[in-house]
Amino acid sequence: MQVGCGFRVKAVKGQEYVYFWHYEDRGGKARQVYVYMGPRRSATTADRLSGAVEAYFGRASDDLRRQLGPGHHPGDLSPRPSGPTSRVRSFMRDGSR
């Protein structure tokens, strides 16, 4: 199992668009998959991207717990409010990293 996700801004014909990427298991191999989120400066894109990041970390946490089995506690793996989603909103707003 490979865990990881993020986002990438791609310029197309002078416009910037945001893509969310994550790893998926396909045929026993980890593949990096891109999902279109929308135009970079859109509030809707920021909300969509934040939701994708939170959902990914939720699924990864569930997968890890399932693989570790009962009695194992990997700690709190949920995203924190000051974590990835706040950085997404900051980037979408002003382009800072």
Q: Can you characterise this structure?
A:
The structure is a single chain. This protein has 97 residues and is an alpha+beta fold. It has one domain. The chain has helices at residues 43-68, 84-94; strands at 5-12, 15-26, 29-39. A three-stranded antiparallel sheet has the order 1-2-3, with helices on one face. Helix 1 runs antiparallel to helix 2 (84-94). The longest helix has 26 residues, at 43-68. The protein is elongated, with a radius of gyration of 15 Å.
Order of strands in the sheet with most strands: 1-2-3
Mean pLDDT: 80
Strand content: 25-35%
Total strands: the figure is 3
User: Mind telling me the C-alpha Rg?
Assistant: 15 Å
Number of domains: 1
Task: Tell me the number of helical segments per DSSP (H or I, 4 or more residues long).
Answer: 2
Structural class: alpha+beta
Indicate the low-confidence ranges by residue numbers: none
